[in-house]
Amino acid sequence: MSLSNRILHQLNAVILGKEQPVRLALCCLLSRGHLLIEDLPGTGKTTLSHALAATLGLDYQRVQFTSDMLPADLIGVSIYRQDQGHFDFQPGPLFSQVLLADEINRASPKTQSALLEAMAEGQVSVDGHTYGLPAPFFVIATQNPVDQAGTYPLPESQMDRFTMRITLGFPPMEAERRLLRGEALEHQGLAALLDAEQLAALQAEVDAVKASDDLLGYLLALLAASRRLADVPRPLSPRAGKAILAAAKAWAWLAGRDYVLPEDIQAVFPSVAEHRLSPVAQGGEKAYAQLVLAAVDPVLS
Question: Under a CB-based contact definition with an 8 Å cutoff, are residues 205 and 255 in contact?
């Protein structure tokens, strides 16, 4: 069994009956992205986040976001050392390879914005000094639906920093039966199947996956469609196009190919594009990503 299949097999043993969301989540991290998992409480968001970090063998911190949380609780603070006559910066939980931002939309917008520079630049600025974050650096955030009490909708600029937004939903009945029987693995005892150096090597392989000019033409046609369709609330930016291509390369790599097909773009497109087309999750009748996909012929010359 290949390493990628071993990783997927272990993750699927923790999150039963959710092979597609699990594959998308792994795809997101292989493409150096940040992942937002949105769903009702109790559907396995935090469990999947823990399982991803443990399986990839990365140091991680879990932060429970609350309404009274301050940016310093996440980034860290400078403490004055009287005996030494200077300030020392004490890093916060943000300085980890994987940050699990649990229920991110329960924190205030001020605290949410503290993640912006970190997610975009891999660094933070405190008291005029810039501090680099560990490599790799992933943010896996979970959030409850915005119509629930005590939630603050993420601003569009913050949503755009997440490569993918996925939902888990309820498991199929047979998978839930297995869950009730206790057949799911516990994430606390998972073996690390690789380390940071091996992960970097896999990411380099993903980067090297080829995309033909025709394939790029298909992607460009999708971006153009998002900008001309009157029913689509917001167009896709060039940054979104890069995120779609990176995710499609990871999807192709997981399928054992070193080249991207239109089917790879179609597989990742809803998860990468939907929260950019419409930040608030919509029902099936308002799946804007599907409207964009339907507007473009995927046949390549």
Answer: no
Q: What are the tens digits of pLDDT across the range 233-242?
A: 899 999 999 9
Is pLDDT larger for residue 183 or for residue 159? 159
Q: Which one, of 120, 106, 110, lies nearest residue 34 by Cα?
A: 120
Domain 208-301 has CATH 2.40.30.100: no
DSSP 78-142: EEEETTTTEEEEEE-TTSSSEEEEETGGGS-HHHHHHHHHHHHHSEEEETTEEEEPPSS-EEEEE
For 124, the token pair is: 């933070």
Read off the pTM.
Answer: 0.89
Yes or no: say if 141 and 34 are a contact pair by the CB < 8 Å rule. yes
pLDDT single digits (tens) 202-234: 999 999 999 999 999 999 999 999 999 988 889
The torsion defined by the Cα of 120, 248, 42 and 65, in degrees rounded to 10, comes to 0
Q: Distance (Å, rounded) from C-alpha 231 to C-alpha 292?
A: 10
pLDDT band at 301; cut points 50, 70, 90? very low
Report the distance separating Cα 212 and Cα 6, nearest Å: 29
What sign for the dihedral angle of Cα 113, 111, 80, 94? negative
Q: Which CATH superfamily is domain 1-203 in?
A: P-loop containing nucleotide triphosphate hydrolases (3.40.50.300)
